[in-house]
Amino acid sequence: MKLTRQLWYYIPMNKSELNEEEIQLWYMWKGSFHSIFGRVIKEMSEQTGLSEGDYGVLDRLDLMGDGSLRQQELAESMDWDKSRLSHHLTRMEKRGLVLRKSVVKDRGVQVIITSAGKSILDDARPVVAKAIRMHFLDQLTDQDIESITRLAGKTKKGSSASSNPSTP
Question: To the nearest whole percent, how much of the chain has pLDDT over 90?
Answer without folding.
Answer: 73
